[in-house]
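Cross-check.
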Amino acid sequence: MRNFKVLGLIAPLLASACAVGPNYERPKTPVATAEPFVTKGAGFDPVAQLPDDWWRLYRDPALDALIERAFVANTDLRVAAANLARARAVLGEARSARLPSTDLNGGVTYGDGVQGAGQAGTPGNPGDAQWSQFGGLSLAWEVDLFGRVSRAITAARADTEAVEAARDAVRVTVAAETTRAYVNACAYAYAIEVARQSFKTSSDSLRLVTDQERAGSVGKLDVERAGAAAATARSAIPALEGQRQVALFELAALIGTTPGDIPEAAQSCSQAPEPATNIPVGDGAALLRRRPDLRQAERQLAADTARIGVAMADLYPQVSLGSSGNFFRDDIVRGGDSFSFSLGPLISWSFPNIAVARARVRQAQAQGDASLATFDGRVLNALKEVEQALTIVATEQDRLQSLREAQLRAGEAHRLADLRYRAGSIAYLDVLVAQADMLSARSAYADSVQRLASARVDLFKALGGGWQHNQETEQADATH
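Predicted model, tokenized:
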């Protein structure tokens, strides 16, 4: 009866229980983030939003297959998935703190019992043996009076969501880097073909001048100049072949295979694919919603805010409700069965460590401030990365257009110089100069093709698309 009176006294406390610590509020972003991006340029669509599977804008089935394979076999994604599974297990552990803890014990003993009254035992004739049984069950449940448990669950849930966002960021990186490795391999294959054509042109000129020297119409100097030009053209090929192999090996690692098992489609690609439509870039508001690294920082801030409440709750008593029951039975003594039961609260308050608890509160508050600064920094960094990528793509597109014209004009100049040389109106040095200009324009054009292809991937990566792939399956997994 006394225990029930105690419960009546603490009932008002339970009814008025509240979580200590700050309630989380999502941080505000600059108003300017809702506006269109500053950088403009041909080939950008500022209205349309980036599709989830942006790599399909290239309309290249080989690229689509490579990314699907990377999403399945990439080792970084496997690590991220394992980290997410661990975070979900930690969340489950935090949630279990709401459940009561139990302790069950029991046993059976057999041995000499106590002699009955007036019955003296004789040597060698011990008292009668007896069986004894005992058991006990205790339950304890922490009353979340100051929100320590609920704040801990909130922090664990936000941690899980932050790890999930980190996994999504890895997906963005895998999609982008797989695309980059593929388009680089294709672009370098095109550059190798250009370099081989340049070497062929230089070799043809060398053979022509060599024949003319044998005929006595030109001197040794012209032959050496032509030979030097041919050797220079040939020297560009090994470096480009090496860069192409590096890109292919990078691709192999991204899709989870060995360097000797590179897909044939990637090895046979000879020209970098281009998006079939203008690149949809949207605006800053859509960017902030899409970028998983921003979501990760925001969820980390939420977790650290909840941990302030956990630390503050340690400044207050911990209240637990407990009950226990015990049973004992003696086979010898009639009526020897006994049963006891208790119910009541247990209050725990660590007075000697209050200074430690206050220090932990200050630590949690400082961590929250750091997480807020991290979020603000990532917002600015996301906007910076997109603007930089837009600028590089726009300027490289202009450069490529100019180099396309330069290549055509240099080719025509070389053709005219060759005709005049054959007609005897100019010296061979003029032909070599025109040829060098043409080969340089070809090389610069091929280099610009590769730079533009890689810059577009940087833009897609900065825009943050690709993590939504197979999202429904991931959400289903999260419920188990």
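The longest strand covers residues 129-143. Strands lie at 44-45, 101-112, 129-143, 279-280, 318-330, 338-348. Passed to J.P. for a second look.
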